[in-house]
Amino acid sequence: MRFSWHADEDAPATLVDLHLAQADDGGTLVTLVHDHLPADADRDALRQHWEDALGRLAAG
Questions:
Q1: 41 secondary structure, DSSP code
Q2: Where are the beta strands (DSSP E) in 1-60?
Q3: Residue 34 and residue 14: Cα distance in Å, rounded?
């Protein structure tokens, strides 16, 4: 799945690419790549945002 993402309504569009694949243990392997980030993007905060979001999916 691929979608554009905006940090807020004034932020430039970035691209989020989400890949789902079968893991060796029968579960699902989720890979997320966030591209086209502006040079001043807070990459650590974005990484934490996506880790939190994926963690909520795993817990659900």
A1: -
A2: 2-5, 14-22, 28-35
A3: 7
